Amino acid sequence: MAAEGRPFALGPGPTLRGEAVGEGPAAVLCHGITATRRYVLHGSSALPRAGYTVVTYDARGHGESDPAPAGESYGYPLLVADLERVVEAEVGEGAFFLGGHSMGAHTAVAYALRHPGRLAGLALIGPVYTGTIEPASLDYWDGLAAALEAGGAGGFAAYIDTEQGIDPSWRDSVLRFTRERLLLQRHPEALAEALREVPRSRPFASMADLESLEVPTLVVASNDDADPGHPYEAAAAYAEALPNARLLSEEPGQSPLAWQGGRLSRALAAFYAEALSSAR
After folding, report:
1. What's the pTM value of the predicted model, to 2 decimals?
2. CATH code for 5-133+201-279?
């Protein structure tokens, strides 16, 4: 039986909507671009059942949360400021666990660099940014935004199908997953803005910045055949740069660990338990 969540809506600023599930040490999880709070643990309740309060929320312009107000953007400084609001309201004082997927992983790192003493553990799932922004990648994101504006969820999925080079054995799953995710977006026009702005924003200056983070960190990588948008080598670079990190991935040929909510939740629970034990 799934645990019941306690919904919340936070202002001022763009209203952020999310939920807290479970009791115990807090674990705040941030989703990736074009996703929603559901798409970190994919509906699994294994982490709250393991004794954690899991706090998830839709980023500005995503899911049920409001778009950025006029004059504001979707860049990492404001994504981190939104995360700070969530932590203040839903965690309060004391150490907590923080994690995220893709854009959420970058947001989590930026928060950790700003608040290194707050974290009991950090989980980075499918990080992509490695200190540089390639012009060719911006062309891809701009094209994705234009496809969403012109064709909605179907146009968005078709663009990914054409441009991303999905392995045929994973194509149907990726496209189904993509369409389902887009149908949960209440503000597609804001999402298109985010698609243009987030990839142009730097969560931190360089990978060398990560060398100062002593917090225990689990880095979750995906093999490239199923998930080329989140390169294995990028996750490996994070694990190498962070002084207290461990790299974890699925076995070759398996569905990416980042897509397996139950397995990912159990891996996070084991990692958090180990971090708590080491801190005592």
Report:
1. 0.96
2. 3.40.50.1820
